[in-house]
Amino acid sequence: MPKQFFKLVNLKKLNLSDNDLSNLGQEISQLSKLVELDLSRNDLGRIPENIKMLALLESVDFSANPMTRIPETMVNLASLKHLKINAISLERFPENFGDLKTLETLEARENMVMTLPETICELPNLQYLDLGENEITKLPEKFGKLSNLLELWMDDNDLTSLPESIGGLVNLTLADFTKNKLEQIPDSISNCVNISVLTLKENYLSYLPHSIGSLKKLSELTVDNNKLCELTESIGQCVALTELILTENLIQVLPESVACLCRLGVLNLGRNRITHLPEKIGKCKALRMLFLRENHLERIPETIGDLKNLQTLDVAGNRLDYLPDSLLQLDIKAVWLSANQAQPLVAFQEDTVTEDGVQKKVLTCFLLPQHKFNNEDYVPQPLSQKIPTSESLTQPIEQAPKIQFEAEEEESKSDENTGFNRVRDFTPLPKDRDRMKQEALNYAQKKQQEEDEKERAAEEKKEQELVEDETDELDPLIVHNESESLDDSREQAQIQQNGVRFDQSVQEEEPMEHRLK
C-alpha cells in the first residue's frame, strides 16, 4: 500500500477485503482513529505487532488469509468487540486471549484448533461464539463462566463430552453440537433455561438426560442420526416444543407424555423401530406433519383423526394393512404409503375388518397392505425427502382435495392443486451460507462468460459478413480495371506502330462542325 494512504489519520472505517494484499505494513498504526478494519480474503501471511496501537478499533475481520496465527499483541486492543478469524489455518489461540474483556463476538470457524486456552472462559461480555469445523476435543472445565453467551456453534468438531459447567450458560438460546462424538449430555443442561434451539444430530448419544424436561423454552430439538434406544418420559415437559426431529435412531416406543406437547407442529420419527403409536397422539392438536417412514408400525390409532391440523402423514415402509377410517375427518394434503408413490394422495376405498370380535371401517388402496420392511440391520441413507422445519409451516399452503374414493378419482385428475410441497431446505450454517454464496457467484460468472462468448461470436460473424460484402462490391471494379488496362496496352501498341494517337474522348464529345473545321 502507498505510504500516502496512511496519512488519512481521521479514517474510521477501512475495507480492503477481496484484494491480493500480502503485506499490511507497520504504517497501519498511524490510523489511530480506525474503528472498523476488514482485511478478509487477501494473501496476508501476518499481522504487524503494532496493531495494538489502534486503541479505538472495535471490529476486525482477518478471515480467509494464510496467516496461521494472530499476534499476541492483539489482546491489547481494549475496545475490540467483534473478531472474525475464519479459515486462516489457525492452530491455537494466544494464552492471554482472555484479556479481550470487551469482546462480544468471536468467529473462528474452519480452522485447525485442537484445544482452547482456559483464559477464553474469562470473556465476560462474549455473546456469540462460533468454533465450528475445527478439531476441538474438549471444552475448558470453566466454560460455564461465559454466562452472557447467547449462541454457541461447536458443530463438526471432535468433542466426546461436555463439561458439567455447561449449565452456567443461563442466557444461552442456541447450541449446535452437530457432527461430534458426544456419548452423553450432562444433567446440568437443565440450567440452560433460556435455550430454544438445541441441535445434537450425528453424535453417539444412546439416551437424553431426564433433566431435559426442565427446558421450558425449548422449541426445536434435533437428535437425528444417533443411537437413541428410548425417548425420556420427561420430554412431555418441554411444552414449548414445535419441532422434534428424531430420525435414524433405534427408538422402539414413543412415551405417552408426547401427548402433552400441545404446540408440536413437526414430529419426525423416520427410520426407527417403533411398533406402535400412543393412543393419546391425537392430543397433539397443533401437529401438522407426522413422519413415521420405515418403522415397524402395524396399525395407526383411530385418534389420529383428532389431529385437525394434520396436513402430511408419511407412513411409507411400515407393516400396515390399512389406515383408520378417521382420516376422513381431516383436510389432509398428503398421505405417503410408499417410497415409489408418484402423487401425494391416492384413491382410497372403504372396507370393513374384524378385530377382537368387533367390526370397524377402515381405508384401503392398491398400496396396502404394505410389504414387510425389515430395518433391523439397515445402513442409514439420506431420506429422499428433506426434513421440514418450522419455517415451512409458515409458508402458504395450496388447497388440495381431501381423501377421495374410487368414484371421485376421475374428478380429482382435473384438479391441479393435488400436491402439498413439504420439502424444505435446512437453514444453512455459516459455512453453508458461504458455500452457497460462492456457488451463486461462480454460476453468475459462468453465465456472464457464456454471454460474452456469444457476443464475441456474433461480432466476429458480423465482421466476416461485412468483409464478404465488401469483396463482392469490389469484384466488378477489379474486372473493369483489368479491361481498361488491356485497352491501354493495345492503344500503346498501336501508337508505337503508327506513331499517331487519337483522343477518343474528344472525338466523342466535340460537335460535328468542329471536327470538320
Notable traits:
alpha/beta, 517 residues, Leucine-rich repeat, LRR (right-handed beta-alpha superhelix), 15-stranded parallel sheet
CATH class of one domain: Alpha Beta
Task: Classify the oligomer.
Answer: single chain
Rg value: 39 Å
Please indicate the percent range of residues in DSSP E strands (runs of 2 or more). Answer: 5-15%
Shape category = flat
Mean of pLDDT: 84
* Poorly predicted ranges: 377-402, 406-427, 499-508
Question: How many runs of DSSP E, i.e. beta strands?
Answer: 19
Class by alpha and beta content: alpha/beta
Q: Helix amount, in percent?
A: 10-25%
The number of distinct helices, counting runs of at least 4 residues, comes to 5
Helices and strands, in order, run as EEEEEEEEEEEEEEEEEEHEHHHH
The strand line-up of the biggest sheet is 1-2-3-4-5-6-7-8-9-10-11-12-13-14-16
Distance between the termini: 93 Å
CATH architecture annotation name of one domain: Alpha-Beta Horseshoe
Main beta sheet: 15 strands, parallel
Write down the CATH topology of one domain. Leucine-rich repeat, LRR (right-handed beta-alpha superhelix)
CATH H-level name of one domain... which superfamily?
A: Ribonuclease Inhibitor
